[in-house]
Every structure is written in structure tokens, then in C-alpha cells.
Amino acid sequence: MNDKPQSSKKISLLITNDFPPIVSGISTVFYQIWKRLPPDRIMILAPEVPGCNEFDKRESFHIIRKRIPTGESGKTKLVKMIFNIFYALCYAKKYNIGKLHCGQILSVGPAGLICKKLFGIKYSVYVYGSETLRFGNSRMMSWLMKKVIEEAEELVPNSEFTMHEYKRWGISRDKMVTLVPGVDTVFFHPEGKSRYLVEKYRLQDKLVIMTVGRLDERKGHDMVIRAMAHVIKQFPNVVYMIVGKGREEQRLKNLADNLKLHDLVVFTGFVTDESLPDYYNLCDVFVLSNRETESHDQLKGDYEGFGVVFLEASACGKPVI
Known about the structure:
Largest sheet: 6 strands, parallel
Domain Glycosyltransferase subfamily 4-like N-terminal: 24-185
CATH superfamily of the largest domain: Glycogen Phosphorylase B
GO molecular function: glycosyltransferase activity
Number of helices: 12
CATH architecture of the largest domain: 3-Layer(aba) Sandwich
Number of domains: 2
CATH class of the largest domain: Alpha Beta
CATH topology of the largest domain: Rossmann fold
Structural class: alpha/beta
Order of helices and strands: EHEHEHEHEHHEHHEHEHEHEH
Strand order of the largest sheet: 3-2-1-4-5-6
Shape: globular
Pfam families: Glyco_transf_4, Glycos_transf_1
Domain Glycosyl transferase family: 204-321
Protein name: Phosphatidylinositol alpha-1,6-mannosyltransferase
Distance between the termini: 42 Å
């Protein structure tokens, strides 16, 4: 098990709902940043999920796991908020916290606000786009978000696009420090197609269009599936490979069946981070048709504030749509 930080040193505590082995862009970005920081000066508080014990044993920094729910309903978000406030107060007392990093504005941000009021601990809040659309129409949510931002040392958007969303919402540009994600080009780089994967998915002599990401409505997999009916007229040897899992999987499979495209749409399911470069290098074109979520009540208004997968595919030398 990784060592706990020494109590005599000022440490930074990241509290986030997204951290490996949870699969998401936010999870990937936090991991890539925090694993590069001095391990004796940082600590992460994240949900206890399947596979976390094996993951944590491999890391040199201290990760605290708690049974915090990971759903998206309003009730679940409230429970997450309460749990995160409780744990933040516990660890603020136990350790010499110099800075609290709040990975989500609503479910973690209030923990930063309370720790500042009670202990004088500075905090930052990370945002990813669409929060003001999803929650800004609620007077209570809007007030809470703005209060969290007002008391924070800085608001950290993940892109210029997200920064402008908050600027339109009345947040001063001076309050924001934009942190645009990068990608490890040693890990993601151009290579030939894996013979094993070509044989596994029967891709000999095939042109491969690929999407990598959680199967959510905002990712737009369904639009690519519908477009395939037109693409195959000009490129009859094309296939669409969908890498990942998510709540939309069955609906997407049904759509492919209804359009009689089930032989042309390949669902790989979950793929480990270690295998991702091989999958990117399988494709000829990478596509992610982002759009605003409409049909899911709890996620209505959600959209892609940034897409790490675009960078990963580009690093592997693939044209990106």
C-alpha cells in the first residue's frame, strides 16, 4: 500500500468522483496530472469501485477510497455532496491540508467552501462544461455554484470553450485558470495495426471508423451509425468500431439491428487503458459527434467541454472528425 503523507508537510488533497479505475476523460486527466506530482505532498479521495485495490497498490501516492455513490440522479448528487463534506472535514483535521482541489463543482465544491470557512483552507474548483446549463436554471443550485466559485481561490475550466461558458454566466476571467488537458505522446503514438486485433475483429481489408468513449447520448454514436447507411454506398468495405461501454449500449445495438447494419458496427466493450493505443492504431478515421444531451432527464443539457480522445487519436496519427 502507498505511504500516507507526513503530517508535518503541507499537502494537497484532491476530492473527485472520477479517478481510475473509473473510465472517463476526467478520470484520465486527473490521474495523468497527479501521478506526476511529489507523492509525499498529495493525497486523493475517490470512490471505492471494483478494481480499485489492485490499481492503488501500483501507485506511489496515497489514495483514500470511500463508498461514495457514483450515479447522476439529484438524490445521488446530494448524497455525494454530504459524504464529501464529511470526509473533507475528517481529513482536514487529520492532515496538514494546504490546498483542497474539488473535482466537481456541486458534489465536491461545498466541501471546499466549508473547509475554508472552518479551517481557512484554500480550494480550487474544476469544471468541464455544461454545468451552468444543467443546473443554472435552479435558483438553489445556481446560488450554491456561484457561492462556491466566489469563495474559491480559482475556477479551473478544462478548455477555452468551458471558460467562455462561465464568462457568459458572469464569472470574471481573472477568477479562472484554464487547464487544457494534454496527452502522453510516448504512450500514444503511430504504429502498425495489431495483427491480433485485426484477426479478432475480422478487419482484414476493412476501412475502420472508430469512436472511443463512454456510450452516452452526448457522444453521438447514434448519428455515426445512421450515417453508415450512406457511407457504405461509397465505401462498401467500411466498418464502425465502438470502443467502450455505457448506458446507451443496448439502444445503439438495437439501432444498428433496425438499420440492418449489425454486421458493420463492432462493439468492443470495455478496453483497458494499456490497450487503447493498439485500438486507436486500428482505425483509419476517428470520429466523435458531440452534441447536447436531450433525452436523459438527469443529464439534460450535458455536452462535451473537451475531448481527451481527440488528442489521443491525433497522437496516434489519425485524422479526427
